[in-house]
Design a protein that fits this description.
The complex is a heterodimer. Chain A is an alpha+beta fold. Chain A is built from 14 helices and 25 strands. Chain A has a seven-stranded mixed beta sheet, with helices on both faces. Helices cover 43% and strands 11% of the residues of chain B. Chain B has a five-stranded mixed beta sheet with strand order 6-5-9-7-8, covered by helices on one side. A four-stranded parallel beta sheet of chain B has the order 3-2-1-4, with helices on both faces.
Chain lengths: 542, 431
């Protein structure tokens, strides 16, 4: 579409022909209120709050449904427009319960905001209001129809993005309501987005509701750690409680548009799991017992050095994880491969069934950064063994030390019986993890790492986009960021001489060392990330 | 006027009094389907031009020039085009299309076929109101007869043009008579009117160019083809041409459908044809063209019944179906009944209509019940202002106009209700 010249309240803009008036007005710095319009959903034009005046046209037009034409003069500040907006606000509120003090949306409610902005402050409606009982509409949402303004966003999200008619408009006139069909539940895994885009408190998240007021939360930009898609999220945490209370979708047109799936939305609960490992553990007479970092790191290093001295670096296997950051993969490589000459370095794949919705796919790799691991060279070299072979070699006795940078169920690493034999055989079994697992239970040493929300770093998604995660929470107990653990090990092993003070500086080394990352820095990644250099082979460190 | 109408010979309803007027045999005996044969020998453009010149304006209420509407359908397109017949006659007071479907379905089919030919459609849908089950059966039978006789189907009357006609029974919603609501309903969706533009002529049924025409509009078409545009244009006042079915109801001695020229005087219609008011009481008010048209007072009935005149007078011609109310009628109650209808039929899609109609209904009932306050009258007027022009379709306007009309024309009666805290007519003759 060619660019046309138009005017918004007298201000000239140049805009692609056909752009709707809401978006066009934005370019002129003019805000046009809207409830039903959402850039990611079909235009329905039902709420009527975006009515604008066009010079020379007698009737107001819906800003969302009207495209800009050459020379169009859009007026948003006339009395006519103000009256129409006020009228719509009054209409929307006549049956509204005005229960902001007890509504979970309060503080981030479009209806509340516009009421403050546009009024009216009093209603002329003096009749009994229509009321509806609260309704459970599925695993993640609660429907309060009293607050619903019938903007259709929920219906259109399910229809257009998920491609499912799980929620619909029923009945007509003032008895019109949003509901599920025949009392069935909303089951699609994108339904949580409804709570994000509902402009009122009609559909709220069961997981988040009544946990906190939105203004009590601090919002931090991050990336979802639950699949290789790398959806951009906003982590909402309660600083005083040091607790994450929700994930919401963060717009990134190159990755997830405006949406995230419900796995990612609820994907912070493991961070607050009461079983979290909070101190280094060492195996003693009575099993695993607490120890200190100062004791653990030198002791682990000594044992590892000893194994290498006696059996060579080929007796060591390092099993990393696609949940670790690029920075941590870089350190892993620098310490074990480059520093100690370990050749058996790999990441166990964690596939899952891909879930394809009409306009959103949950990817088939549960790891957020398997791509980054490969790019950093966390893959067996020509003479090295992969995960399953490493485990088999350990079971057969040729590998004497196994380092798991994340644990997991036995079958993640091979045939459970073989894995069990391997874990029992080795002289050194070190596990770094957040939670106890079948692997960590058998370890000689367990070091408490941290989650995606407790450290800075970057993930590389399946498309090769490098994006930042951010430290949100203060560390719990005696846990340490994984990059710090790796640096500590490197120091104890005598291979890291000058540890970097933060992941940003580790990343700049990484960008120097790994061609795929060349030219990138935390500054260039910004909020939305940046793609790796095109046409770089995944195992790229020379 | 009386002399002009006295010499008028019915055209659309000429055969309805005959036994079996709905059959093909009777229709053909009176010249049926000759217009189709004539039309098929002309080009579609010639037909559109003919209808344009006749001055035929849509009989469904809006009065849009039919030929112009047909002319909007793009000529150079690979997409199929559709003709939709709006037989969803649902407005209180309107019952003229029903008569045409019931008594002369072939006239409608012939008009439908000629219209389809003119716009290049090879499929027509007749969307008939759900409650018209009897008429639907008649129409179905007529379609079958016409198909067997070769008027519907392939290579109609030896021409290269083929056309199928399908009847679709609505499910009982006034809003499905709104042309885009009708299209949505026909597509199997909720009958929610669409945002315009695009207009149906460009993006209509199944996303294809579509014309939606009223039953009476299409019934006029065969006669225009048979008798020429000059004949049609010669009936009635300028810009408001042709014969018209007036559905007269309410407080008249002889309610019914009367075929007269456009522009007949309302007084003449009520007194000459309707036989006046029972008990020879005074006319208190008339809703001239179906419930959405603002009421006019009993002293305003010396008015020409046509689109332009009634619009100038602040009301609307609508479907040309006056509802007469005598002096036993409580106008607050009449307003409330009208508002209740629109509140019930509002589709619920857009805010002003969904919320405003219910509010109007409550305000009017409050006054009728004797609980009204003077400010309620202001609120009624203000709510109608807040609805009008701000909605997706015209139902919002259709609900706002009559409420405003009643409140303005009978302000004294509203105030009397408020002052006396009761209905001075005890509800009057309406229930």
């Amino acid at each position: 579409m060619p660019a046309v010249k138009a005017f918004v309240d007298g201000r000239e803009i140049s805009v692609e022909k056909g752009t709707n008036l809401i978006e066009a007005a934005k370019l002129a710095g003019v805000f046009v209120p809207h409830f039903c319009y959402h850039p990611g959903l079909p235009v329905v034009g039902v709420c009527r709050i975006c009515l604008c005046e066009l010079e020379g046209r007698p009737k107001l037009v819906a800003g969302c449904a009207t495209g800009v034409e050459e020379g169009m003069k859009i007026v948003t500040r006339s009395k006519k427009v103000a009256d129409a907006r006020k009228a719509v606000m009054e209409f929307l509120l006549i049956h509204h319960p005005l229960d902001c003090p007890m509504c979970d949306k309060g503080g981030e409610c479009t209806l509340q905001d516009y009421t403050m902005l546009l009024g009216p402050s009093r209603s002329r409606f003096r009749f009994e209001k229509l009321t509806w009982p609260e309704e459970d509409v599925g695993g993640k949402l609660v429907l309060n129809k009293n607050r619903c303004i019938l903007c259709m966003r929920c219906v259109n999200l399910c229809k257009d993005v998920a491609g499912l008619d799980e929620i619909a408009v029923l009945n007509r006139g003032e008895q019109t309501f949003i509901g599920t069909v025949d009392g069935r539940m909303i089951e699609n895994e994108l339904a949580g987005n409804i709570a994000d885009i509902c402009p009122v408190g009609a559909l709220t998240s069961k997981d988040f509701r009544f946990k906190a007021r939105p203004w009590e939360l601090t919002n931090v930009s991050s990336v979802c750690p639950h699949c290789s898609k790398g959806c951009n999220i906003t982590v909402g945490y309660h600083p005083r409680r040091n607790e994450i209370l929700r994930h919401t979708a963060r717009e990134n047109m190159d990755v997830n548009q405006w949406w995230i799936c419900d796995r990612g939305r609820g994907g912070f609960h493991h961070v607050h799991d009461p079983r979290r490992l909070t101190a280094p553990l060492r195996r003693g007479e009575g099993g695993l017992g607490p120890t200190t970092w100062n004791e653990a790191l030198p002791a682990i290093a000594r044992t590892l050095r000893d194994v290498i001295t006696r059996h060579g670096a080929r007796a060591v296997g390092v099993l990393s994880s696609g949940t670790l950051t690029n920075e941590e993969h870089y350190l892993t490589r620098a310490i074990f491969t480059d520093g100690l000459g370990v050749t058996h370095v790999d990441v166990p794949p964690r596939p899952q069934p891909e879930v394809v919705y009409r306009k959103f796919t949950i990817e088939g790799d549960r790891d957020p950064n398997a791509r980054g691991a490969r790019l950093c060279g966390i893959a067996p070299t020509a003479s090295g063994l992969g995960v399953r072979d490493m485990v088999r070699a350990a079971a057969e006795g040729s590998i004497k030390a196994l380092i798991f940078l994340r644990g997991g169920p036995l079958d993640l690493f091979g045939e459970p019986a073989i894995v069990e034999r391997a874990l029992g055989n080795v002289e050194l079994l070190l596990v770094v993890d957040l939670l106890p697992s079948a692997v960590s239970e058998r370890a000689h040493w367990v070091l408490p790492g941290v989650s995606f929300a407790e450290k800075d770093g970057t993930f590389t998604n399946s498309q090769g986009r490098v994006q930042r995660i951010r430290k949100v929470l203060t560390l719990n107990g005696d846990t340490r960021e994984d990059w710090r653990i790796l640096q500590g090990l490197g120091r104890a092993l005598g291979v890291t001489t000058t540890p970097d003070p933060d992941p940003e500086r580790i990343f700049s080394r990484l960008a120097q060392a790994v061609p795929a990352f060349s030219g990138l820095s935390y500054a260039t990644l910004g909020e939305l990330g940046a793609p790796i250099a095109a046409a770089t082979a995944d195992v790229a460190v020379g | 006027m009386a002399t002009a109408t006295a010499t008028f010979e019915p055209v659309l309803t000429k055969t309805i009094h005959l036994p079996s007027s709905h059959t093909l045999a009777v229709y053909k005996k009176h010249g049926g389907y000759q217009a189709l044969a004539t039309a098929l020998k002309k080009t579609p453009d010639e037909i559109i031009d003919l209808v344009k010149r006749s001055g035929l304006r849509g009989r469904g209420g809006a009065g849009f020039p039919t030929g112009t509407k047909w002319g909007f359908v793009p000529k150079s397109t690979d997409r199929p085009k559709y003709m939709c017949v709006n037989a969803d006659e649902s407005e209180p007071g309107a019952f003229k299309d029903r008569l045409l479907c019931q008594k002369d379905p072939h006239q409608l089919l012939e008009g439908t076929l000629i219209g389809s030919y003119a716009i290049g459609a090879s499929r027509a849908y007749i969307y008939i109101r759900g409650e018209f089950a009897h008429e639907a059966r008649i129409l179905e039978a007529a379609i079958e007869e016409a198909r067997k006789a070769g008027y519907i189907g392939s290579n109609i009357l030896g021409s290269k043009w083929s056309c199928e006609v399908t009847m679709y029974l609505g499910a009982g919603a006034y809003i499905c008579g709104e042309e885009t609501g009708l299209i949505e309903s026909l597509e199997g969706k909720r009958g929610w009117p669409r945002l315009k533009p695009p207009f149906p002529a460009v993006v209509g049924l199944f996303g294809c160019p579509t014309v939606v025409n009223n039953v009476e509009t299409l019934a006029c078409v065969p006669h225009i083809v048979n008798r020429g545009w000059e004949w049609f244009a010669g009936i009635g006042p300028e810009r408001n041409t042709g014969p018209k079915l007036y559905g007269l109801s309410g407080h008249v001695k002889n309610p019914g459908v009367y075929e007269l020229p456009m522009g007949v005087s309302l007084r003449e219609l009520i007194y000459e044809y309707g036989g006046g008011v029972p008990g020879d009481r005074a006319v208190k008010g008339v809703i001239p063209g179906g419930a959405s048209c603002p009421v006019i007072r009993g002293d305003e009935i010396d008015i020409q019944m046509d689109f332009d005149t009634l619009t100038r007078a602040g009301s609307l011609f609508g479907t040309g179906t006056p509802i007469v109310m005598d002096d036993t009628t409580c106008m607050v109650r009449a307003a409330w009944i009208t508002a209740r209808f629109f509140a019930h039929e509002s589709c619920g899609q857009c805010t002003p209509c969904r919320e405003g109609c219910g509010w109007l209904q409550r305000l009017l009932w409050k006054i009728e019940e004797g609980r009204g306050e003077e400010k309620d009258l202001d609120t009624i007027l203000s709510v109608t202002d807040q609805i009008e022009g701000n909605t997706i379709c015209a139902l919002g306007d259709a609900a706002a106009w009559p409420a405003r009309g009643f409140a303005r024309k009978y302000r004294d009666e509203f105030l009397q209700h408020i002052r006396e805290k009761r209905c001075p007519l005890d509800g009057g003759s309406l229930h």
